[in-house]
Design goal:
Strand content: 15-25%
Distance between the termini: 73 Å
Family: Belongs to the metallo-beta-lactamase superfamily. RNA-metabolizing metallo-beta-lactamase-like family. Bacterial RNase J subfamily.
Structural class: alpha/beta
Biased composition (Basic and acidic residues): 33-52
Keywords: Calcium, Cytoplasm, Endonuclease, Exonuclease, Hydrolase, Metal-binding, Nuclease, RNA-binding, rRNA processing, Zinc
Shape: globular
Helix content: 25-40%
Enzyme class: hydrolase
Active site: 275 (proton donor), 448 (proton acceptor)
Strand order of the largest sheet: 9-8-7-5-4-3-22-23
Radius of gyration: 29 Å
């Protein structure tokens, strides 16, 4: 996969001389594909190799077929250290919740963005579709931006990319592995973003971005193609692990690269940033292979159809489901928009292996006996519009659940989703389904390292300073204690908030300036226009109801003309004629009193609102949202 770089003429000439070729439109990939059509083909900007990725040895790049080495895997000389240089590390997201991960690295006029994720809303965000980090700082310094590095394909690391791309006024190269770029391309297609500059990397690759050199190394996670990054700059070196676990029996054979970690330790890690999600778990995270054993057992014993809900991006889990289904003589059905899309991408990229004859469209289920079917679907988080929720409510177009069917929820509820998941489980139980979740059997394991794994990586890397990332406040603090326990001085452990930067120089690491940060709400077609005040109003509407007052007034006569109209919605007793008549009379008297005092529109509206709310509190103990409309006649 060739790399196109139009950042600056100097870097362009360096890249072209190093690569011996230019252009990032996929033509080179097509040429390679023609030379060996059975093994590769082109897919827009991504070169597809239909084989599982191979682990690099000690972080070193491997040879391409035919003996030609990937140019990006050339060992660049480390940036020359500058005692006057300062590297700024600015987290814009990911330090207050599990989601919206985004970190800025800035040194000597060059800037790199590491991940660009989003977070999904909870019950406190009615009507909100997505939550993005506030990336105003990136836009204000867009002329410095040399590239965007995506560590893996999960939404909490990629979801903000389409919105960021629309706000940037020029193409910025996006670096990721084959699977990651495949998912990003699907996301860009939904947003109608064309001609994005996507550049494939592999573990062991190095890329030069301005004064930075970024080297990628393999990590094991719950999605294929996950990597960590070792950043070298004139001011010092930073290691970002990305999301990882130390699964020694992984489904695809890719383990976290201990050799690379040891090599970086020898080079010198001035600051380490590491995944904190499971820092409170005192044990090792179990292997994904253990889930496969349990799924195989449950499927073999199931009498009717088997429905399995999991994350649509968990390709390793999907592979094990497919293998277990085929071993038990069952066809695989995929339903749910994101599950269908990701299955298609993973199969085309060679990460999900299942013959065409063993995978069936949901619309072709008719005629296949229930005991010969396994259904993979979305809805492991209880989302009301997901495939599993629609199946549980009897609203799915093609799948009807019957008594005796088996349902497996192969995921752990994200904090805040527990009630929604329980609601779906109860609906399934009422139908008579046999429901398995993590409490009943090992049908899910985390993709994040536990405390013992985190300590092991810290011991290998031996960083001079440490910054926990990717987690809520309790996770970050637990990880900070692990760092201290493995020998990082307490004064060199930095727990930051979003927007609070660190500065790395020859003198060490210290706290830097704070930049604008926060969250941006995506509400339908609106991005950033929905404020917290709007959410507060929505919450009030949802919890207390709504009341409206309409009246005609005459300031000259100082009187109310005609009858006052009062409507109440979502208010206990709001349809009671007696309460409505009392509300009309109370508001009318309040308006008359205020008119007698010579009050203006502002005072009149306040008087009417206060009178109505006082009455409703006295009668119903509710304080709804109240709107007053006055017409001057």
């Amino acid at each position: 996969m060739e790399q196109q770089n139009n950042q600056r003429s100097e870097r362009r000439s360096q890249e072209q001389s190093r690569n011996g070729r230019g252009g990032g439109n996929g033509n080179g990939a097509k040429g390679a594909a023609r030379g060996d059509e059975k093994k590769t083909r082109s897919y827009k900007h991504v070169q597809l190799e239909h084989r599982r990725p191979q682990l690099s040895k000690a972080g070193q790049g491997q040879q391409r077929q035919g003996g030609q080495q990937n140019a990006r895997r050339a060992n660049f000389s480390s940036p020359k250290k500058d005692p006057n240089a300062t590297l700024k590390i600015i987290p814009l997201g990911g330090l207050d919740a599990i989601g919206k991960n985004m970190t800025v690295f800035e040194c000597k006029g060059d800037m790199i963005l590491d991940d660009a994720g989003l977070m999904f809303p909870d019950d406190d965000h009615p009507g909100i579709d997505l939550i993005l980090p506030d990336y105003t700082y990136v836009l204000e310094n867009a002329d410095k931006l040399r590239g965007i590095i995506i560590t893996h394909g999960h939404e909490d690391h990629t979801g903000t990319l389409p919105y960021l791309m629309k706000d940037l006024d020029r193409q910025i190269p996006i670096y990721g592995t084959k699977m990651t770029l495949g998912l990003i391309e699907g996301k860009f297609a939904e947003h109608k973003i064309k001609n994005a500059k996507l550049i494939e990397i592999k573990p062991g690759d190095q890329v030069k971005l301005g004064c930075f050199t970024a080297e990628f190394f393999a990590v094991n996670h719950s999605i294929p193609g996950a990597v960590g990054v070792f950043f070298q700059s004139p001011a010092g070196n930073v290691l970002h692990t990305g999301d990882f676990k130390l699964d020694q029996t992984p489904i695809d054979g890719v383990t976290t690269d201990f050799g690379a970690l040891a090599k970086f330790s020898k080079t010198g890690v001035d600051l380490m940033m590491s995944d904190s999600t499971n820092a409170q778990n005192p044990n090792f995270t179990p292997s994904e292979a253990e889930v496969g054993k349990e799924l195989r057992k449950i499927i073999s014993q199931a009498r009717g159809r088997v429905i399995i809900a999991s994350f649509a991006s968990h390709i390793h889990r999907m592979q094990q489901i497919c293998d277990a289904a085929r071993d038990n003589g069952r066809k695989v059905v995929v339903t749910g928009r994101s599950m269908i899309q990701n299955t298609d991408i993973a199969r085309r990229l060679g990460y999900l292996n299942i013959p065409d004859e063993d995978i069936v469209d949901a619309y072709d289920l008719k005629g296949i006996p229930p005991e010969q079917v396994v259904i993979m679907c979305t809805g492991s988080q209880g989302e009301p519009l997901s495939a599993l929720a629609r199946i549980a409510n009897g609203e799915h177009k093609t799948i009807d659940l019957e008594q005796g069917d088996t349902v497996i929820i192969s995921a752990t509820p994200v904090p805040g989703n527990e009630k929604a998941v329980t609601r779906v489980i109860n609906s399934l139980a009422k139908i008579g389904a046999d429901v398995y979740d993590k409490k009943r059997a090992m049908v899910h394991v985390s993709g994040h390292a536990g405390a013992e794994e985190l300590k092991l990586v810290l011991s290998i890397v031996q960083p001079n300073a440490f910054m926990p990332v990717h987690g809520e406040a309790t996770h970050l603090r637990a990880h900070a204690k692990l760092a201290e326990a493995t020998g990082v001085p307490a004064e060199n452990v930095f727990i930051c908030e979003n927007g609070e930067g660190l500065e790395l120089s020859s003198r060490g690491v210290k706290r830097g300036e704070t930049v604008q940060s926060g969250i941006v709400f995506v509400d339908g077609l609106s991005v950033g226009d929905t404020s917290q005040d709007v959410l507060d109003e929505r919450n009030a509407l949802g919890s207390q109801g709504f009341a409206s007052v309409a009246a005609a007034i005459s300031s000259k006569r100082k009187d109310v003309v005609g009858e006052v109209q009062v409507e109440m919605h979502g208010i206990t007793g709001g349809d009671d004629d007696y309460l409505v008549r009392e509300a009309r009379s109370t508001v009318k008297n309040a308006l008359k009193r205020q008119l007698g005092k010579g009050g203006g529109q502002k005072e009149l509206k306040k008087a009417a609102r206060d009178a109505l709310l006082s009455l409703l509190w006295e009668r119903t103990k509710q304080r709804p949202m109240a709107i007053v409309n006055l017409l001057e006649v």
